Amino acid sequence: MFLQIKKELQKLSNPVHAISSARFFKTGKGQYGYGDKFLGITVPEQRKVAHMFWQASTKDIEKLLKSPYHEHRFVGLEILVAQFERGGVAEKKLVYNFYLKNTQYINNWDLVDTSAPYIVGTYVLNRPRLILTKLAKSKNMWERRIAIVATYRFIQNLDFGDTLKISQILITDPHDLIHKAVGWMLREVGKRDQAILEGFLKAHAVHMPRASLRYAIEKFPQSLRKKYLETKKTYLCCK
Fold first, then answer.
1. Does the pTM exceed 0.90?
2. What is the mean pLDDT of the chain?
3. What is the CATH number of the domain that holds 89?
């Protein structure tokens, strides 16, 4: 089935879009997506292909994940999500374990965001969540992003504790893609309970990277956003 999926994606390839995708996902030397290759296929088209072949074998999915082409990995992950959602308890466990064994191939922000909440977050929703702390402390930046983005599943259930815990672990992370992910998840908390977010910000706002803070307070009234940003600026000036 891998060859069928590969053929289907090749038919949808667009060299012009591939060039713009390579720029968008920062594939230049020294950038986070260095070396990634693109076919130039839109996300809706990739998802359509994934759902056509959602019954692909683990071996086929593994081949997709190990491919140098970004779209192959994206489709592989979308197939995993589909199998997880349709599977029973045993199947979900298999998909979850397979996912964690292959995080080295989940190596861009969109690959994380399209899969982590729906596999990792959902699997540990009613189970112990120690894996998130382990991932948050990983040397692999994408595993750290998996840790925080997976908590979106908890946020949807109005369960904010692990989002705040992982955010605190990652608050001094050196990478801007982690800054943005932390801010994004905090913003999602604030959309549901602004008081909880403000409690977190009271303790941590001045220490947060500016990108995290900006994302976190994006839905606040303008006057309140200004207050937090000015407090942050004052702290940096006096540091």
1. yes
2. 95
3. 1.25.10.90
